[in-house]
Known about the structure:
Elements: H1 2-6, H2 10-35, H3 40-56, H4 70-88, H5 105-115, H6 125-154, H7 158-169, H8 177-184, H9 188-212, H10 217-228
Helix pairs in contact: 2-3, 2-6, 6-7, 6-9, 7-9, 8-9
Amino acid sequence: MIDAVRGNDPGERSRALETLFAAYWKPTYKYVRLKWNRPAEDAQDLTQGFFAELLERDLLGKYQPAKSRLRTYLRVCLDSFVMNEDKARRRQKRGGQVLHVALDFAAAEGELDGMAIDAAQIPSPESLEEFFEKEWVRTLFMLAVEDLRKRCEARDRETTFRLFEEYDLDGEPDVSYEKLAQQYGMSATEVTNALAWARREFRSIALGRLREICGSDEEFQREARAVFGRNAR
């Protein structure tokens, strides 16, 4: 993705930027809301302004994978951007040839409300940095789940996705393979095989998205181990 952003192919550059924004805009928005204690409207402006600045100042072109993870680099750039905006005490209107991506701020705000997090109760800046990273992983998984849903639909495996939703995502304590088999008119073995397939596909999709948003193969290996454990590949 980084190579595509730095390249000369407009189509590849646009696709790479959309991939980047999809992975990072929600963690960015929520981080600004909590660390910088901004109301929703201001946080929306800052989020959009930050990604515009990434393009205007070619900050991705300045990223050096050997020195830090991409998500760490972006978070540091974000803190610097918010501080500079505070100093300027103004909002800039941005447009022109900037790539426009629809950002569902209402959904992000709803997720924040559901977390019931009080920024004043967060003990340290390090806790907010950890929050940013957890939100990044959460967004990665949400995108992978949506990709899996589309893949299941394309392959006429909607039931497989519903099994995956009910057993692996919904978190109901009394769900079991036997109950799902009875509910969907399947054998327990069929449920087992369907869930095994869905988990493999989900893992493959998530790793594929992760590889796209890492700055180097070395970073990808580090991030994959951080997200999936020592046996990630």
